[in-house]
Structure formats: C-alpha cells, structure tokens
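so my prof wants the structure for this chain in the tokens format not the other one, which i didnt know existed until like an hour ago. anyway here's the sequence
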Amino acid sequence: MDERQKRIFNALVNAWPAPLVSRSQVEKFSGGSIRARTLNNLDCRGLGPDGKILVGGRVAYERDNLAEWIAKRVRPL
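here's what i got, hopefully its the right format
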C-alpha cells in the first residue's frame, strides 16, 4: 500500500469500534463510497474482501480485511 492507502486504512479501522462490519453497514463504514449491493455483486464474482463470514444469517466482514480491501481500491483522479 502507498501512503494514501495506509492513511485511509488507518482512518477506517480507527473510526469503527467493532471487529466486524455487516454488509448492511458497509456504506456507513466506507463513508458512502461502497454500497452493500455493489459489495454483494463483487462477492458473487469472487472480487470482494477476504474474511467474509455469516452471523445469524447476515454477511459480515472482518473490519481490518474490509478496510484493507477498500484502501487498495483507492486510485488518484
């Protein structure tokens, strides 16, 4: 990861108190940059973050894996 990606990773991890992020909360976790439906589609294609689990019938992600996945998708404009 480059410096920008590291900053984003750290900001995401530090702002979220729980070790898991439910798919329905991904939009909030990412500051609105990733929608739950988009993540669902990417998961179906095998392109989503590692560490996906099922908790009580809901898909959730390990916070650090999701933050790293988001940070690695950051591209300068």
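also thought this was worth mentioning. The chain has a mean pLDDT of 93.
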